[in-house]
């Protein structure tokens, strides 16, 4: 198709509107008063205000906004919960995942192939299937429902198979001679792994981190079942604030905008690690 | 961490006692006996797949033994980890740590051993000076040329100050000119550094120029060991005769009759004694390309197929019957291709091999 074709640009424009429209709408509404949002004469011309953000983050502000009579800590707390759960579960997943992947790639033991395939199969189980059993076990056996630790645990379990699988393919690419050289230089398996292999699979770790963080950040189903009032994550809080008595659209839009920022920042930082040619110069190609 | 309390003088004598290696049911290295004297530069040479690299890797501790034992003097080391063997190794593909600069690559082993920083610095600098890579210490391996990487790989081993150095085809990735240069430097290093060195290569030129002792291997078996001169002058079988020497020896099928050996397109007299030793049997006649001359010797008619002019010497690819025969002669006159003419063979240099077993007669 010739590039000058107007239909081509029309199609592009339509795609852009579809992709950016909801985000622009969310951003716009988060800067409006509820009166403006719900008014039938809704327009693009309005007095922007940061009130909704002030309400959401009232707990963290150094000043007291005059429009808030009583600070509702729900959203601020949810943001902290989300950050804590996502970061810790990502960290644990990566640490366990890279060591498990290394063992699966480099060590020969009975059932290695089955384990390797099995981890991936586990990933194929939809979270909804896990919901009831996990809820039952977490609540009645472990008694860790409603705790941040409980949610972190299930996120680690959920993400680990994929991380192991993704990191295996990175570890395979590290030339075995490097590890042999490290062995000759006097490094045991742990030092070989941490000093030689790990620095070389940084791109893999970054990719896995982005993936894990996003899954943990966006997860709703299990968090909704396991969290209590104090440990709710942002997605759960947003849904729970849609009540039959009152829907504070402005606040929801502001929280939604805040919800979108951390993954974007995280991805920007992590993706800088994704560079090719990490092993250049190691061995003759 | 290693048993180097004996000091510099105490280089171990390395003994392979019926060392065996198999992967599953595939035997890659039949029982192998070999003794490497201390301070010797030993070259294991053979075609690819002959077991020379496996032998080296077993010595390094990167492969486990399937049977037998290796002794350093009287100490069995077959079960020890590589780091407990006091061995440093240079890999064929360099295997430099790409995320560390050259200084850190070279000091990796010392840092692992928690050597004092002052000693690490002085050792790295000393070796870097020796190998002419002092100006590269801050660079990463990716910024280096192949020859420079090769030096760094050697430097990393030398910094270790181990008793035994292993080289696994260290020059095979370099271009011809650089290889020759590094070979010379290695030969120089061999004389200045008093260590056990075991060097694996498939290149017989490297083997002959570097080795105090050359061990020729084929199909996991040691064919012959000795100095370059011994192997060239007195090969024990057809394999060694064909492997050592460049261009390689010509082999012609022949029969012994009285004191002559005859075959398709040739009839050569044998030096006294050789015919009697051989008796009447089917043999392979081995003639070195350098034994064929233009003037003198026993006459043989050869048809010149290609004449490769190499400067002072020319290598002629000729045909005797239906076998190609190489002749290495001084380039006096250009010999045109396609011509059939008389050459001479220095009969005292002829070797005979049993056609069935390949053993030297």
TrEMBL record, chain A:
Primary location group: membrane
Keywords: Cell membrane, Membrane, Transmembrane, Transmembrane helix, Transport
Annotated ABC transmembrane type-1 domain residues: 79-270
Superkingdom field: Bacteria
Record-level GO cellular component terms: plasma membrane
UniProt-annotated location(s): Cell membrane
InterPro entries named in the record: BP-dep_ABC_trans_perm, MetI-like, MetI-like_sf
Lipid bilayer topology: Multi-pass membrane protein
GO biological process annotation, one example: transmembrane transport
Name under which the protein is recorded: Carbohydrate ABC transporter membrane protein 2, CUT1 family
Family in the record: Belongs to the binding-protein-dependent transport system permease family.
Species of the source: Jannaschia pohangensis
Pfam family, one: BPD_transp_1
Record keyword Transport present: yes
Transmembrane segments: 7-27, 83-105, 117-140, 152-172, 193-217, 249-270
Automatic annotation (TrEMBL), chain B:
Cellular component GO terms held in the UniProt record: ATP-binding cassette (ABC) transporter complex, substrate-binding subunit-containing
Origin: domain of life: Bacteria
CDD domains on file: ABC_MalK_N
Biological process per Gene Ontology, one example term: carbohydrate transport
An annotated Gene Ontology molecular function: ABC-type transporter activity
InterPro entries linked to this entry: AAA+_ATPase, ABC_transporter-like_ATP-bd, ABC_transporter-like_CS, ABC_transpr_MalK-like, ABC_transpr_MalK/UgpC-like, Mo/tungstate-bd_C_term_dom, NA-bd_OB-fold, OB_MalK-like
Domain ABC transporter intervals: 14-244
UniProt keywords, alphabetically: ATP-binding, Cell membrane, Membrane, Nucleotide-binding, Translocase, Transport
Similarity section: Belongs to the ABC transporter superfamily.
Protein name: Carbohydrate ABC transporter ATP-binding protein, CUT1 family
């Amino acid at each position: 198709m010739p590039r000058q074709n107007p239909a081509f640009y029309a199609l592009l424009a339509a795609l852009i509107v579809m992709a950016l429209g909801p985000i622009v709408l969310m951003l716009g509404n988060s800067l409006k008063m509820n009166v403006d949002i719900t008014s039938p004469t809704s327009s693009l011309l309005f007095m922007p205000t940061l009130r909704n953000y002030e309400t959401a983050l009232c707990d963290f502000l150094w000043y007291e906004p005059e429009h808030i009579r009583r600070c509702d800590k729900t959203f601020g707390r949810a943001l902290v919960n989300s950050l804590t759960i996502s970061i810790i579960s990502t960290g644990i997943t990566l640490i366990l995942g890279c060591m498990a992947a290394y063992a699966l790639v480099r060590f020969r033991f009975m059932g290695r192939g089955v384990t390797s395939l099995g981890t991936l199969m586990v990933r194929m189980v939809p979270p909804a299937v896990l919901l009831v059993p996990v809820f039952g076990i977490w609540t009645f056996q472990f008694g860790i429902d409603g705790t941040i630790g409980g949610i972190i645990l299930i996120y680690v379990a959920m993400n680990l198979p994929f991380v192991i699988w993704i990191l295996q393919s990175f570890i395979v690419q590290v030339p075995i001679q490097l590890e042999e050289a490290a062995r000759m230089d006097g490094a045991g398996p742990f030092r070989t792994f941490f000093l030689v292999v790990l620095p070389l699979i940084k791109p893999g770790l970054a990719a896995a981190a982005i993936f894990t963080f996003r899954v943990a950040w966006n997860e709703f189903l299990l968090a909704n079942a396991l969290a209590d009032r104090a440990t709710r994550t942002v997605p759960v809080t947003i849904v729970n604030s849609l009540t039959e008595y009152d829907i504070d659209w402005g606040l929801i839009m502001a929280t939604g905008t805040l919800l979108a920022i951390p993954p974007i920042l995280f991805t920007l930082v992590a993706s800088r690690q994704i560079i090719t040619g990490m092993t250049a110069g190691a061995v003759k190609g | 961490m290693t048993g180097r309390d004996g000091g510099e003088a105490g280089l171990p004598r390395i003994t392979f006692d019926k060392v065996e290696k198999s992967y599953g049911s595939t035997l890659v290295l039949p029982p192998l006996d070999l003794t490497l004297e201390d301070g010797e530069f030993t070259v294991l040479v053979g075609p690819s797949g002959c077991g020379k690299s496996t032998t080296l890797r077993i010595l390094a501790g990167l492969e486990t033994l399937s049977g037998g034992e290796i002794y350093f003097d009287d100490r069995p080391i077959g079960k020890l980890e590589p780091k407990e063997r006091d061995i440093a190794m240079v890999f064929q593909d360099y295997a430099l740590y790409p995320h560390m600069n050259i200084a850190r690559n070279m000091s990796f082993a010392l840092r692992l051993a928690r050597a004092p920083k002052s000693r690490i610095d002085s050792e790295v600098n000393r070796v870097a000076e020796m190998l002419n890579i002092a100006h590269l210490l801050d660079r990463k391996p990716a910024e280096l040329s192949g020859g420079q990487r090769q030096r760094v790989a050697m430097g990393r081993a030398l910094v270790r100050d181990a008793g035994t150095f292993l080289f696994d085809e260290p020059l095979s990735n370099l271009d011809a000119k650089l290889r020759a240069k590094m070979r010379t430097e290695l030969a120089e290093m061999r004389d200045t550094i008093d260590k056990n060195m075991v060097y694996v290569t498939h290149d017989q030129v490297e083997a002959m120029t570097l080795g105090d002792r050359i061990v020729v291997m084929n199909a996991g078996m040691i064919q012959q060991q000795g100095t370059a001169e011994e192997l060239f002058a007195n090969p024990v079988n057809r394999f060694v005769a064909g492997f050592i020497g460049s261009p390689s020896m010509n082999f012609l099928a022949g029969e012994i009759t009285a004191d002559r050996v005859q075959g398709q397109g040739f009839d050569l007299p044998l030096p006294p004694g050789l015919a009697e030793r051989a008796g009447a049997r089917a043999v392979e006649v081995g003639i070195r390309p350098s034994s064929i001359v233009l003037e003198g010797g026993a006459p043989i008619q050869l048809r010149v197929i290609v004449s490769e002019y190499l400067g002072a010497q020319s290598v002629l690819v000729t045909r005797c019957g239906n076998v190609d025969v190489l002749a290495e002669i001084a380039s006096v006159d250009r010999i045109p291709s396609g011509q059939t003419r008389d050459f001479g063979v220095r009969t005292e240099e002829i070797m005979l091999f049993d056609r069935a077993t390949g053993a030297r007669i």
